[in-house]
Amino acid sequence: MTTIGFLGGGNIAQAIIGGLIDNGTSPADIHCHDPAAGSQQKLASLGIQLCDSNDAVVQAADVVMLCVKPNVLPDLLGELTADCKHRLFVSVAAGVLIRTMSERLGPDTAIVRCMPNTPALVGTGMTALFASPAVSPAQRDIAEGILSAVGKALWVQDEAQLDAVTAVSGSGPAYFFRLMELMISAAINEGLDEATARELVLQTALGAARMASASQLSPGELREQVTSPGGTTQAALAEFDAADLEGIVTRAVQAARQRSVELSGH
Ligand SMILES: NC(=O)c1ccc[n+]([C@@H]2O[C@H](COP(=O)([O-])OP(=O)(O)OC[C@H]3O[C@@H](n4cnc5c(N)ncnc54)[C@H](OP(=O)(O)O)[C@@H]3O)[C@@H](O)[C@H]2O)c1
Which ligand 1 atom sits nearest the alpha carbon of residue 125? Predict the structure, then answer.
């Protein structure tokens, strides 16, 4: 039985805790410290163990989930007095490097850094993980298992790839939200009422994502399958090409990756 501790019990922590409990982890094996009254109320309703300090969580846990905002994390780690050596630390804090955490937790401490995304809040997240050299294969399985409670999880082999992950799946939900927003406006412009436009767009996005996930074909092949020469889809896609949608998306993802590098200060 693995005991899991959470430092910070806000949105992402509550999503992961909810997923763990749904997947069979006993609330008695989950410990958390969060000073915010609002978070405490929600955490208490999940039936987990609320601790009055971060040190108390670390002492109680085999795995410590770091779920505070990135600007808070380095000081929080520096203030821990509990023995951190034989524990696995898993950080979800965007842009906080393994190096920064190792400096505070000790060079031999097992640390996994990961980047989840907001659909984790509804159980369909995508998380990429990176492990420091001190992380054992068994600890990798534990970290992957925890993040899999809120969606899919995969490993990257190089920490710098987390910047590209941030630009694709981290920020990615907003790109799709933007496209949905624009399609809803375009549908209204073509004479549909807002409720109808919204339902058409959201169900189409969900259907396309499900179809692409379930199919052996690439998204490009699926697109070709539904694009008849001289038809309606081709007319729309020709407008995308004329506006260089490919260049726009390439530059947008590059800009996000570059910003991620700047924010993490490496
Ligand atoms: N939400 C997502 O989908 C998502 C996706 C990817 C990555 N992340 C990462 O997840 C982390 C948390 O994000 P979030 O959205 O869950 O933020 P959040 O809802 O603000 O949760 C953070 C919680 O930590 C508490 N906290 C502050 N200082 C603390 C301390 N010293 N000890 C213990 N708890 C403390 C905060 O309390 P106060 O409100 O009182 O400060 C807050 O309740 C961030 O680093 C973010 O980069 C989140």
Answer: 3
Q: How many domains does the chain have?
A: 2
Distance between CA atoms of residues 5 and 3, nearest Å: 7
Mark whether 110 and 27 lie in a shared domain.
yes
Which residue bears the tokens 């260049």?
247
Domain boundary among 101, 132, 165: 165
Of 52, 58, 69, the residue with max ligand 1 atoms within 8 A of its CB, to mutate for a pocket test, comes to 69
State the pTM of this model: 0.94
How far, in Å, is the centroid of ligand 1 from the Cα of 42?
14
Q: What is the CATH number of the domain that holds 39?
A: 3.40.50.720
Residue of minimum CA distance from atom 40 in ligand 1: 36
Ligand 1 centre to CA of 235 (Å) is 45
Tokens of 227: 């694009």
Q: 10 CA distance to ligand 1 centroid (A)?
A: 5
Asked if residues 110 and 116 have their Cβ atoms less than 8 Å apart, the reply is no
pLDDT digits (tens, 9 = 90+) for 138-169: 999 999 999 999 999 999 999 999 999 999 99
Burial class (CB in 10 A: 0-12, 13-18, 19+), 190: exposed
Q: Looking at residue 253, which CATH number applies to its domain?
A: 1.10.3730.10
**Domain containing 224: what range?**
172-264
Pocket flag, ligand 1, residue 53 (CB < 6 Å): no
